[in-house]
Each structure stands twice: as C-alpha cells, then as structure tokens.
Write a structure and sequence with these properties.
Blueprint (H helix, E strand, L loop, with lengths): L5 H11 L3 H4 L5 H23 L3 E6 L3 E5 L1 H6 L12 H8 L3 H15 L1 E10 L5 E10 L6 E8 L1 H68 L5 H31 L8 E4 H18 L3 E5 L4 E4 L1 H17 L5 E9 L2 E8 L33 H12 L2 E7 L3 E9 L25 E5 L3 H13 L3 E5 L2 H8 L6 E5 L8 H12 L5 E5 L4 H10 L3 E3 L4 H12 L1
Parallel strand pairs: 7-9, 13-14, 13-15, 15-16, 16-17
Antiparallel strand pairs: 1-2, 1-5, 3-4, 4-5, 6-8, 9-10, 10-12, 11-12
Catalytic activity: ATP + protein L-histidine = ADP + protein N-phospho-L-histidine
Enzyme class: transferase
Organism: Pseudomonas violetae
Amino acid sequence: MAKPSDEQQRALAGLLGLGSHSARKSHYPELAARLDELEAERNRYKWLFENAVQGIFQASLLEGMRAANPALARMLGYQDPQDVLFSLADLASNLFVGGAQELANIGEILRHQGSLHGYETQLRRKDGSSLDVLMNLLLKPDQEGLVEGFVADITERKLAQERLQLLNDELEQRVNARTDELIEARDAAEAANRSKDKYLAAASHDLLQPLNAARLLISTLRERKLPDIEQVLVERTHQALEGAEDLLTDLLDISRLDQAAVKPDIALYRLDELLGPLVSEFQSVAEADGLHLRVHMGDYAIRTDLRLMTRILRNFLSNACRYTDQGSILLAARRRGEMLSLEVWDTGRGIAPDRLGAIFLEFNQLDVGRAADRKGVGLGLAIVERIAKILEYRVQVHSLPGRGSRFSIEVPMSREVPLPISLATPQPGTGNPLPGRRLLVLDNEVSILDSMRALLGQWGCEVVTATDQASALSALAGQAPELILADYHLDHGVVGCEVVRHLREHFAQAIPTVIITADRTDQCRRSLQRLGAPLLNKPVKPGKLRAVLSQLLG
C-alpha cells in the first residue's frame, strides 16, 4: 500500500484530533486503511449534499450562511451555491420575507429548544418573488450557534390548498344558494299546500251542503213504495251519493290531519261508552251483509279522545264488513299490561304478507274483484295511521290470506273506572216516538229545509222551518218546538248555537237540540259540548238521524 501523502496525514490528524506525535505513526497500515474509509465516507456525504432534491444549508446564528447545496440555490433562483451564502445582515433583507424579526424569533426558538421542525415560511427569490417552504432546523450542540437546515419547496402544495379552498368556498356558496332555493321552494310548497287545504276544506263544506239535501231527498224516496224499476234507480242513486259522501269526508279529514289542525282531547271513558254506539251502528250493517257481529268488552276504562278513537274503530269495522263475504266479525278488548288492545277480527279474504306495508298508503285498496264492488277510494287506513300518530298509539295488523285479519290498536288503560252511564243508543221496546212531534229545522240552505221537511214529514213529524232567529220566532208563533235541528253556520256569521240559546231563553225551556254541520273543527266541537247538544255531520245519514231523534224524544 502506498504511503499516505502529507495532506492526507494532516486531514486525518485534524479529524481524529491527533497531534504531530501521532502523525508520525502514519506508517502503520491500520491508520492508512482508516484514512481511506473516512475519505470515502466524506465523498459519499458530499455527493448526497450536492445532489439532494431538497435544499440543505449550514449557518451560524452569529455570522450567517456558511454552506448551501445546489438544490437550495436553484430553489432561490441562483446558479452558484456561493451566491446564497448571505451574511447575518443580508439574510434578514435578502432571504427571509419576514425580515429581521422573523430571523430573531427563529434564533430564540433554537436556543431554547435546540430544534425547529415543520416550520412554514416564505423565502425571497433572486427575482424578488416569494417562495413557500417547509424547514427543519437543528442547532448543533457541540458547536455554538451552528445550525443545519433542510428546506422543501411547498409552493405547489400551497397553491393547491388555495385552489382547493377556493373550490370549497365556491361549493359552499353554491350549496348556500341551492339551500336558499330549496327553502324558498319548500316555503312555496307549504304555502301552496296550506292554500290547497283551505280550498279543499271550503270546497268540501260547500259540496256537502247540496249533497246533504240530495241524500235526504233520496232517503225520503227509499222509504216510499215505488215500482221496482224506480226503486232500483233510487237505490243506485243512494249508493252513488253515499260513495261521494265517503270520499268528501275522507278528503276533508286527510286535509285536517296533514295540516295538524286536529288536537286530541284526552279524557276518561268507560269502554262501553266507546264501543256501545259502534255496536249499535254496525249490528245492522253486518246483518245486512249476512255476517254475525260478536262483542267482547269487559269492564274497563281508558284515557283517550273519544271522537278520534271512534273514527279508528269505525274504519276497522267498516273494512271488516267490506272485505268479509261470510262468517263473523269480532270486536274485542284484551288487557296487555297497562294497555288495552282494542281489536277487530274478521273471517274475510285476508291480506297477503307483501301487501301489509301498503294498506296504510293513500288511495290504496285491496283487490275486491269488479270495480263496481269497490267502495271508497282507500283513505280509511291512511286516516287511521295519521290519527294513531297524533294519539301516539300503536296500530298492528295480522292477517292470513283466505282465513281473515285482525286490526288492533293499544290504548292507555285507567285503574279508575267511572260509574256506568246510559248508552247513547235507543233501547228496544220504546216504540216509535216521532209521529206527531213538533220539530224546528233551522238552516240557511232552502234546499236542505225542503229535503228535511219531506223526510221528517214522512216520519210523521210536524215540521217548522226557518233560516234565522227572527223567522224561527215568527214561524213558531209563540209555541215552543219539542226539538230543534239546527245548522252550525248560518248567514252573516251567525252560529246556530247562539240561536238555540236565544230560543231556549225565549221559551224558558231546555229544548233538546241536534246540531247538523259539515264543520269538523275543534272549535265547533267545543261549542257543542258547552251547549250540550249532539252533533251530526253533513251529509246526514237518515238512519243515524232517526236514531238520535228517537232517543231524544223517547
């Protein structure tokens, strides 16, 4: 092996800290080999320093830049790395955009912490433009004030972030604009829906007035002996009017339920108060269809809205009669913990499992064969579902095709059971109390007055008609009627309840009264409760009217 040169011997002495005495031992082969290894290592680091992609530099906190690699020079717009070896004063003015203050802050951090990682700043290029960089700085612990740094150009990343932020801002603006449009569209739709509901309510009320008159006239004809051909025509007309009545009633109820105009009036009732009138109403309906209606009540009391619960059970019973060709229908109450399950069973055709989820949709009907056999438009169970949500009750359906169905609803049960009261249904054996009774009919529609006069006259009643309080007093000629049938809404904003009060005061008698109206609002219902008068909704069903009159006059 060749003997190391004098320059190599001096470099080795400086690297290893050897004095002149040690240098004289350079003729040892081990020292020569070690010198070659160190030289190779130095060349490797030098190559990495000069060819690194990131900028690398060495600087002094007291003097400024001492070394820089070509990557840092190119990054700053210089050809030669020597051009970026700025003094401490030039660093503040020529390199750091933040100036002397930023440079002082960096030095302070390095003195206290020894390093600074992930530091983002801007450096000034040769042409005066700025460059976004990420720096990692390390203070050499064994050499006072000596700093080694690594610099990465993050200008493209910053620009991408700015573009992304701009896109996000634009997207947010678009989302906000679209949200505003959707809010406006929603508000317009809600306004249109409210307008539709108001129009539907008004139109339904106006349509029910002539329909009520027509139903009364048809009922009068149905009770007369007519030739067979005319009797068939009358019966078909009756069925058509009945279908139109059911449709308008359901549409009006759906409208009120959708606009949250129905508020439940929860009170304590005996179970027979709820089920008794329904049994009386559907007993004849079931018999007419060749069905047997069975009842299992029990001595229970429930807390509910009597009117809304009656509507639910009436729909259950009506569907049971409609979709049962033969067999029986059971109306039952079963105790389930603190709840009472009110159930309607039938032996009808049943419902396929894949149809159970659709039966509560609007305008959905089961297949009943020919179109002529279908009744209604499929709103009954949609109304049931909405009422159940208002009352917060659970509705359940269980059905087996070909064997029948069970519809049930769970109602809160009360431990307190009120004393029995007389049922609101006429008792058998009382005879016919209507012939010869003097009745006052009060309505602002002349067609309804004529229809009511014909129907009640056919039942043997003496009928006095009037359109307002003045004409009523004139027609009565000082003799009080035995019963008043009054419309709720009269002309000029007058309410029938007010006229009834005046007539009762005038004759000093608590004259029995029935209010007939197409108004289904809670305000109307509360007025009737204060008056103590039963309510019949238009169009009036003659059978129900006769039952109520028989009870009040019997």
